[in-house]
Amino acid sequence: MKESGIGTDPIGQNLIKSIGNVCFSAFVFSVLIFTVIAITYQPPDPWLQSAPALTRLFTETRNATFHSDNSVLNTGEDLPLPTEMFSSAASPLASEMPVTETSIEIVERRIGNSTGKDGVGCDEMADGQVNCSDPRVLVAVEKFNLHSFKAIVFFEYQAPIAGSRPDECDVAWRFRNKKEKSWRKYRDFRRFRFSVNDDCVYEVLHSDGWHSGINARRPRSRPSSPKGSGPKFIPFVRDEEINDTIPSLGSMSNFRKGRYLYYSRGGDYCKGMNHYMWSFLCGLGEAMYLNRTFVMDLSMCLAATYNPSNRDEEGKDFRYYFDFEHLKEVVSLVEEGEFHRDWKRWDKTHKRKVPVRKVVTHRVTPMQLKKDKSTIIWRQFDAPEPENYWYRVCEGQAAKYIQRPWHALWKSKRLMNIVSEISGKMDWDFDAVHVVRGEKAQNKQLWPNLDADTSPDALLSKLKGMIIPSRNLYVATNEPFYNYFDKLRSLYKVHLLEDYKESWGNTSEWYNETMALNKGWPVEFDGYMKVIVDTEVLYRAKTRVETFNNLTKDCKDGIGTC
Ligand SMILES: *[C@@H]1O[C@H](CO)[C@@H](O)[C@H](O)[C@H]1NC(C)=O
Ligand SMILES: *[C@@H]1O[C@H](CO)[C@@H](O)[C@H](O)[C@H]1NC(C)=O
Ligand SMILES: *[C@@H]1O[C@H](CO)[C@@H](O)[C@H](O)[C@H]1NC(C)=O
Ligand SMILES: *[C@@H]1O[C@H](CO)[C@@H](O)[C@H](O)[C@H]1NC(C)=O
Ligand SMILES: *[C@@H]1O[C@H](CO)[C@@H](O)[C@H](O)[C@H]1NC(C)=O
Ligand SMILES: *[C@@H]1O[C@H](CO)[C@@H](O)[C@H](O)[C@H]1NC(C)=O
Ligand SMILES: *[C@@H]1O[C@H](CO)[C@@H](O)[C@H](O)[C@H]1NC(C)=O
Ligand SMILES: *[C@@H]1O[C@H](CO)[C@@H](O)[C@H](O)[C@H]1NC(C)=O
Fold first, then answer.
1. Which ligand number lies closest to the CA of residue 257?
2. Which atom of ligand 2 lies nearest, measured to the CA of 109?
3. pLDDT in tens, 505-530
4. Which domains does the chain show, CATH number per domain?
C-alpha cells in the first residue's frame, strides 16, 4: 500500500494500484464529507476557495489525491492577505519608503535644478563628461526608472558610480514587483548614458539591461567607500539578505522550558509537493493552536515526477524550495537534529526524563491535547496508508480550530532571484501563457479537448486574438519538448524557462548559494524548482492567458467540474 493512491504516477500503473486508487478515493471522499461540513472559517487558502472546489479536488480526479495543478504552485506570497499580516513584527515594510514622483521632487528642490543656484557648473558636459556624484544624475535615473518600469516599486538607490565611458554611470537599487505580496526586495544594477541640456538638466539617453551596471554591483553591506577608491570587481555576489541558518536552542535549560510538537515522518514522505505543503501546514497550524514549538525536519524527499532521474530522491533541503528565513521569523520552530541532540543530552544528564506524550493516532484531536503539559507531544504516524498522513490531524472537527498558516510559507528567495532575473531581462514587459499538458493532455477521459486545444496550431490561432503580435511571450508549461512552441515564434518573441539556463548553471549565484547548503556539492535544478520559477514569472506578466478558460473549455479538474 505504501506507493499507491497518491502522487502523479506515470501512465501504465498496474491493476493493484488502480484498485488501490479507487478505494482510496472513496475513502478520501468520505473523510471529506466531514471536513467540508466542518469548515466554517478559513483564512485565504489557495485550495479552499470554496468547499465545493475542495470536494471536487479530492473526488473528481480519481487517479491522484493531490491532482490540483502540479504545473503551478501557490504559496503565501501569491495570496491576498489581510493587511495585518504585513504589519507583523517580522515585516520592515512600515519603515521603508519607496521612491516616488513626490520624493524625487523634494530632492530636486533641495539640490536646486539649475546652474546658477549652487554654483555647480555643467560645463564638464561640454566634453561629454558626466560627474556621477552629482546628485542630479541620480535624480535623472530615478525619474527614468519610474517612467520606464511601471510594474516596479523602487527603494534605496545607491550613489551612482562611473561606468565604462565618461558619459555613463552605473546605478544599483532595490525593488519589488507590484505583483509580489511579500515584502522581500531584489537588487538590480544598470548602466545609463546621459546627455545634459542647456538648462543643465541631466537626461537618460539610454539604459542597458538587467544587471548591466556591473561597477555598481558591489554589495551594499560595505558602507559607501571613500571617493576615488573605485569599485572592486567581485566575481560572485551572494544575496546577502538571505540568512536561513538553522537556529539553535541555546542552553539546556532553554530546551526544558520549551513546549514542543513533534511529528515523526509519515506517509507524506516522498509524495507530491502539494501534498507536502498541505500536510506540513497542518502540523504547523496545530503547533500554533497548541502554542508549541514545531519540530521541523528540513530534509525532504522529492517525488519521482519532479526528478529528471524519475526516482524519488531523499535528502532535498527545504531551503531549496521555500523561504526558511521567513518561516522561522513568523512561526516558532526548531530543527529536528538540534532538537534530538538536546533531548538526548537532557535525558543523559538528568534523573527525571523529559516528559513526553506519545500520540499514535490522528484520531486524538488537537483540542484534546490543548491541556496537556508535557514538554513534548510526539505524534507518530505508523499506521498503514492513508491513516499515516499528517494532514489527517486537521480533518473533521479540528478544521474548525486549526488554520493553516499559509502566510508563513513563501518560495525560496534564491529561486525568486531567478524569477527577478528572467522578468528583469524582459524589462518586466511581457505577456505569458500557461500551457498545461503532460498527463492531463494524455488523459482523454477527463480532459477530452486539452491535447488538441494546446496543439501548436491551436495555440497560435488562439493567442492571436489575445496577445498583440511581436510582444515578449513567456510560456510557462510542463511540456518537456522544447521545440513544441516553435510555431509561436512566427508571431511572438517566445521565452521559455530553458532559455535562462545560465541563471542556475554552474556560473550562477544560485548554483553557488545552493551548493553552500549542500555541503559543497552542486544541487540539481529539479522539476519542482522549475514549477516554482514558472509560476512566479507567469504571475508577473502583463497579460496572462490560462489554459483552462482561455485556451480550452475543458475543466481544470476534469470533465464536469466547472
Ligand atoms: C487512471 O489512470 C489509468 C492509467 O493511468 C487510466 O487508464 C484510467 O482510466 C484512469 N482512471 C480515471 C478514473 O481517470
Ligand atoms: C527648477 O525648479 C523650479 C522650482 O524650484 C521650477 O519652477 C522649475 O520648473 C525647475 N526647472 C526645471 C528645468 O526643472
Ligand atoms: C562631482 O560632483 C560632486 C557633487 O556635486 C562634487 O563634490 C565633486 O567635486 C564633483 N567632481 C568633479 C570632478 O567635478
Ligand atoms: C542569521 O540569523 C541568526 C538568527 O536566526 C543570527 O543569530 C545570525 O547571526 C545571523 N547571521 C548573519 C550572518 O546575519
Ligand atoms: C504561549 O506560550 C508562551 C511561552 O511558551 C507563553 O508566554 C504565552 O503566554 C502562551 N500564550 C498562550 C496564548 O497560551
Ligand atoms: C560548467 O559546466 C560546463 C558545461 O556543463 C562545463 O564545461 C564546465 O567545466 C563547468 N564549469 C565548472 C566550473 O564546473
Ligand atoms: C562561488 O563559485 C566560485 C567559482 O566556482 C568560487 O570561487 C566562490 O568561492 C564561490 N563562492 C561561494 C560563496 O561559494
Ligand atoms: C481569460 O479568461 C478569463 C475568464 O474567462 C478572462 O477574464 C480573461 O480576460 C481571459 N484572458 C485573456 C487574455 O483573454
1. 5
2. 5
3. 999 999 999 999 999 999 999 999 99
4. 51-89+248-408 (no CATH), 96-216 (no CATH), 413-551 (3.40.50)
